[in-house]
Design goal:
Number of helices: 6
Strand content: under 5%
Number of strands: 0
Largest sheet: none
Shape: globular
């Protein structure tokens, strides 16, 4: 399945930015570099008309819970803008904001 049509499914740039913010803040955890890298490539795919990442690559590199959420987003983008809003709300409820524990730990040790 190609993902190059995703950028055209949003109501406006604000809705797309909200989706990207959810991906960045709640899904792309840099403590798992391979998964984070492919989620961020998907993040870029929401802006690009060329292939940045494929479903096969996501399937190989993203854990099942997050992959299910990404697949739900793709379905929402291809269905309706209201479903995108519902995806944002649901994902924000299910996934907490990722705290960079490594960065905070380094700050605590510097004190």
């Amino acid at each position: 399945m190609t993902l190059t049509d995703l950028r055209n499914g949003f109501r406006d740039d604000e809705q797309r930015r909200r989706v990207q913010r959810v991906i960045h803040e709640r899904l792309a955890d840099d403590r798992d570099p391979p998964e984070c890298r492919f989620l961020m490539r998907f993040w870029w795919q929401l802006l690009m008309s060329y292939r940045e990442v494929s479903m096969d690559e996501l399937s190989l590199n993203v854990g099942k819970p997050k992959l299910d959420v990404i697949e739900a987003l793709i379905s929402a983008i291809r269905s309706s803008r209201a479903e995108i809003d519902a995806w944002i709300a649901t994902t924000e409820q299910v996934f907490p904001v990722i705290q960079d524990r490594g960065f905070m730990a380094a700050q605590d040790s510097d004190s």
